[in-house]
Amino acid sequence: MASSLLGRLKAIEVDRDLLVFKILYTFVAATFASLGPFLSVIFAGRGLTPSEIGIILCARPFVFFAGAPLFSIIADRARRTRWLLLTVFVLSAVIRTLIAFIPAERFALLAFVVLTCEFFGSPVYFLIDTVVLKVLGKNSDRYGQQRLFGSIGWGLASPLVGFVVEVSDSENWYYYFQTIFLVFTVLTITFGKWPKEGADAANPNADAEAAEAPLGDAAPDREAPDASSFLDLVRLLKNPMTLMFFVSAFNNGLLMSLVSVYLFVFLRSLNGTPTLMGLTLTFTCIAEVPLFFFADRFLRRFGPGWLIVSGYVSFALRFTYYALLGNPWAVLPAELLHGVTYGIDWAAKTEYVRRISPLSRLATVQGILGAIYWGIGQGCGVLLWGFIYDALGPRKLFVIGISSVPTPGEPLAPGMGRNRVWLIGRRAGVHPPRIAPAVMSGLTALTDFCDQHLDLLAQEQEEAAAATSEAMATLSKRELILSGLIFAGLEMASSRIGLNGRFFLTFEPPRNGLFTSQSHFRPGDLVHISPDTADAETKVPAVVISLDAKSLVVSTESDLPLEIVDATFLRVSYVANSVPYQRMKGALERLKTRGINAPFAQVVFDDQTPRFFALNEQVDMLNPKLDASQQAAVRHALAAESVALIHGPPGTGKTTVVVEIIRQLVLRGERERQNNPHARPFRVLVCGPSNISVDNIAERLLPCPEVRMVRIGHSSRVMPKVQQVTLETMLYESDQGEVLRDLRREIQTNVLSLTGSKSTYGHRARAYAELRVLRRDLARREAKLLDHTLLQVPNVVLSTLSGADSRHVRSFGGPRDAASSPGGPPFDYVIIDEVSQSMEAECWLAALRGRRLILCGDPHQLPPTVTLSNPRGNAILSHTLFERLARRWSTSFVPSSPPAGVPVPGPHPDARPANDPVTMLTVQYRMNRHIAEWSNRRLYQGRIESAPAVAGHLLADVVPEPAGGGGGGGKSTQSGPLQPLLAHPLVFIDTVGCAGFEEVNPSAGAAGGPATGPPGAKRLLRQVLASESKSNPNEARLAVLLAHMLLAAGLSPDALAIISPYAQQVRQITAGLAHVQATSPPVPASHASSSPGAGQRAGRKGAGSAGRRPAKAAAAAAKKPGPGALPGPDMTRIEVGTVDGMQGREKEVIILSMVRSNDDGEVGFLADVRRLNVAITRARRLLVVIGCSATLDRDPDLATFVDHLTAHADLQTADFYPLDSLPDLPDPDALGDGN
Length: 1235
Known about the structure:
By secondary structure, the chain is an alpha/beta fold. The chain is 51% helix and 9% strand.
């Protein structure tokens, strides 16, 4: 226990962010303690009568009741808490000093001064509490460890002041001490480190925010009070549970006034001395300190509810003890209970206020709590107990107090405690109505979810930033290039002007090299542009727009310094981008502050079942080609009252269904507007995790006349076919767009003059200055015109999930909607496609903006990418909103097995088939039935049918077999080199027993990584180059050979993709394709009728682990052909990527390199059945699997896949292919000269 206490003390000591508040609590309490407790003594010494003293003391709490919430509201609206606190505190102390100069004869003036002082001093503690709670955030249970310093300050100052006054016999010392502590308090407020707020809250990612947004869009102010937060506050205060909480606070104030005012009166009647009364105050402060200190543990263990119950129990014990008291000195042990009746109780109430309050109204609710507790509660108590004291005497007063303590009974405001237990105010036989426990249990689940995800997101952000910073500081330039953190030696190929006067810069790799696809750079990432020199200090922030093998495009709002313009070579460096994290955190904070009243929160976290109403209108499908399951999904979405989930397995036409739903919703909105012309505009927000997912829907909507859509986002990231509906295009093709086009041309002319080789320095400096003016003018004109353009009110808005937090999406909830729906969600429907690839926090960015929610995705494919090092936290963040709802409410959904040790919610007892939110598409239109069959049986319970048009299609239908290989048109029965690939949808090339097909696990040193150094830097380097990725060079060579054969036979490079689960293997294959393209190696043109036929299958039974299918392998090896030559096709157009990168894509042919081949049977993350599902369902006509059956058989799921291949694939051995006809593939890390 001692060591634990020392550890906690040490933790507090080093917490510099909170140190200022500890000091502030101490000096504020000391300032108040210097005079406040002694006012009655001072007044009595001045000659005031008891009735006059009583009038002042009784009026103080009611003035407090008026002042505390008033100043708290001002703090929330002005968001200048620091300076408001300084103002009211100084005014309170200065006015209190005036008491020394007012004689007793001027009672009215004296009372006015005292009450004015009370008015300005009333909000002081609550303003500090508000800032502390915001700083603590999710760690708000540590509030008591800060607040205890107020008890220390009070406990030290009050006896010290009393002793000095008694010794000196001078009243002036009250004011001297107050002035001393006041000075220290003012210095602490003025010069201490405070969190920034309001206009002072500089955004450290302002460059990234501005560059990522379509038009100078800044991140929303998370604390800005608006109409919605005010309405949230009104709803909160009208909530019966909140009202009962404030009734409890009033009751606590009532009971506390009995102790604070009448205990000393009672002790005086027992002949208690002033020394005893001073010791009583000291004991109460001593009791508060440890309980404030350990309040966080009690809150985590029991929850606020039980702690407030314990406060009532302590009041009852305390009053019982007082009623039996005979010796006044015996009162001291009872004062130790003050730590529970006030310390623990106040910490619990503060924590509960933090949980239920909108962040932008936290000070207001905190002020209301204080006003009720210390104001009206104490004021009414002073009057009430005074009448009882006069009538019955002091001892019976405490007996009455015992009967006034509420007794714990049925739950009131359930869910505040750990087990949804609160208390009931059962007084005088009045029983408040019971409130359903489920309501607050939902709030608790929501709060716990938000706190957990906020914590994990913060961890992931910190890890990413720390690892990147360490790598940049410790790795060499080559190591940084190899780890994908920088591109060096770049040349600026072109520049143009985009929206908001942004520069769009295109870079080319050096010496005709290629950009590696395995860098850390992704569209939307923050980067720095700098001269490629060792001592370069100039850095321009930018955002990645696009990256392919031959170009890198970035965008920046910053001016381009001449150092960048004049540089021969440039460097682009990766920067850890916190913008996505900040946006997700903002969404979670908004969800948390809105609580259970947030859109869809009651379905997701509470007991409100998803409901579906009977459609009144006949739904005539606009797309007549929809199958029965697709039509059912459309009707299911249209009938949803709150939430609908569409489960779309691979190839089932999910995007087609989404398009039909959008069109049907738009027509429904038009019918509603015809019936009610004054109704609010009907709008649909369509989002996805990536630009491609959104653009696929937008492209399908282009021919639909009823849809008026706008695509929010960077035009450079949008597909060319969708450019016409982007904001930029709408802006520049409007009636006033000509002025903007002229400005752009002028800016472009200035850019060219800057880069002109013959320009003088003075001319370029003038052009540079003029350029800045023109860009600002362009941005101003665009913003003004764009707001006018948005007033046309499209009925469909499309954006990425991150873009749902942009200013333009938020503007749809602005003033134009205020008359029709103040504070309500601006969109009638929110549709999120590919939701299973989206983190849940991302989904809430869009979901909170709608009235109904439609989720579309497939939880049996890969989850969102999370980089958290903690496996359990990684799994929690990967759990999607689709899966949460499906597990909770669906009776038909069969989830994948959750990761070990990760809690997932089970089915709700009220889940019924009639309220099942999930509908599944059951006809797939992509794959040959043999390619689809394994996934169908393993993950979709055999419910997927293959459409007749694709069930039997083969590569031979589109690629004729070359002459000499058995005939043309793919119909020949003769053997040939391509016959197995043309005639079978599945080909399994087994590498078991084949020499040289072992996996390679490169070391960091071999890859150029540091042997020593910070662990974060080493881990970041290994993620791309070393032990955390694997390769199999001969599998890579075989994949390249197969690709070359298929392209030589006439297959388009765009119809083929090579994928692998491992990034290092992707690098190996990419390097091999580039090398083959450059060297045009010989490729086998004839196998002398040696290709395995469809009927020549190797038997699995009886094969040993070292050599499966021995007869087949031996026959193939004996018939190995001699080399020939085929013309070299364009190999660089072949798409190569990881399984994760290919999700959502499809190709006619997929070559899948499994990589793993080892004696231990280790398969790593190949064991994730979702990854395997994605890998094999990308192929339409042909799937070629290259792998070691002996290794794959060690995993149960992979073993069933090998069984499926054995039953349905053409089986081959890797020895059959003449890899010696290919040159050795180069080191992938040498690709593109390091880039």
